[in-house]
Amino acid sequence: MEETISLKELMQTLRKRMNLIVLITLAAVVISGAVSFFVLTPIYQSSTQLLVNQEKSDQPVYNPAEIQTNLQLINTYNVIMKSPAILDKVIDDLGLDMSVGQLNEKITVQSEKDSQVVNVTVQDPSPNQAADIANKIAEVFQAEIGNIMNVNNVSILTKAEVGENASPVKPQPVLNITIALVVGVMVGVGVAFLLEYLDNTIKTEQDIEKLLELPVLGAIATFEDQEIRRSARTPQKTRVRSESVG
């Protein structure tokens, strides 16, 4: 037998399981907020910029070929900047209690599209340490690149600074709570339909018609206990009143 579900039945299922959906959604929001505010460690971000320019020459204008060469070198510089040759010296100069691999995970090196500017971004639980690491990487790289590649075409464009009201870049509680709200609603609706699908009990005459494929000729009305007690007391009160009048 092919079974179809109407939109009305879907809405009835949602209304019947609304308490469950709301409970799951609230639980997801509360857990997400608690984890974002009290469990996850705030991470701050600081960035510095390097400029890869051509070496000084007697030509009054830039040579396009040399500029293209500098752009191609940027990819090489990005790799060198995160290499042990640079990071070991950064760790020694700042006295960091971490390995090269741990420091590498904190650093992101990206070049601006079609430009000679390289952004060095560092994320750390301490905003001051993030700025110190970013600036030290730029200084060490500028000093060591001449010995590594025998070039001198790197200059520091901007240094990393810590603002007065530095705010963490992650976690983002509002975003996390919003995602938890959406996920909670989706999970709640999914659980509601799953429970409705697994519920094979007979509750209405329509369920009997679907199950037996027979028309329902009649139904026995149900009464609540309070209604039965109220109806049982009503004749007694009437009889007592009639005897008192007589």
List the helices and strands and how they pair.
Blueprint: H1 7-16, H2 18-39, E1 44-52, H3 64-81, H4 84-94, H5 100-106, E2 107-111, E3 117-124, H6 127-149, E4 154-158, H7 173-198, H8 205-212, H9 225-245
Antiparallel strand pairs: 1-3, 1-4, 2-3
Helix pairs in contact: 2-7, 4-6
Quick structural overview:
The protein is α+β, with helices and mostly antiparallel strands.
Helical run tally? 9
Report the C-alpha radius of gyration, rounded.
36 Å
> Which strand-content bin applies to the residues?
5-15%
Derived from helix and strand composition plus strand pairing, the structural class reads alpha+beta
Number of DSSP E strands: 4
CATH class membership of the largest domain: Alpha Beta
CATH architecture of the largest domain: 2-Layer Sandwich
Strand order of the largest sheet: 2-3-1-4
In total, the number of domains comes to 2
CATH topology tier name of the largest domain: Alpha-Beta Plaits
Structure description:
The protein is an alpha+beta fold. It folds into 2 domains: 7-36 and 172-237, no CATH class; 44-158, Alpha-Beta Plaits. The chain is built from 9 helices and 4 strands; from the N terminus they run ααβαααββαβααα. It has a 4-stranded antiparallel beta sheet. A hairpin with a 5-residue loop joins strand 2 and strand 3.
